[in-house]
Amino acid sequence: MSKFFLLKYVTFFIGCMSCFILHTQFAVPAVIASCLTGLIGSFIAFPKQYENHPYAAIYAGSFAGMCSQGLINSYWELAIISLIGAMLYVLTAKMFTGFGGKLGSIAFISVALFVLAKGIV
């Protein structure tokens, strides 16, 4: 497992978990919870070799963490969503450079794939 993927997974999970906890446990509106997660995450120092990728993963994770409590029943499910999101991010890192909506699309696809798989299994 590469360090890059592990960093993406951990930062995606931190963003996802932080946003989800803020809006489910503390009744912060989902959009504001995502904004706060991204803002606070932007102050975390990461090695320069990773460029802006950890910050982008935190934002993408916060978008995925905006999902409702009706879809997600445990923190393990957030970990699986984060795994899917980190894989999608790493696989599409060189694609769609300069296009808007990449992070939101990754978040949507990761949650949608999880919910679809959960419904099938």
From TrEMBL:
What sections of the protein cross the membrane? 5-23, 29-47, 54-72, 103-120
User: What keywords sit in the KW lines?
Assistant: Membrane, Transmembrane, Transmembrane helix
Protein's name according to its UniProt entry = Uncharacterized protein
Species name: marine sediment metagenome
**Organism ancestry:** unclassified sequences, metagenomes, ecological metagenomes
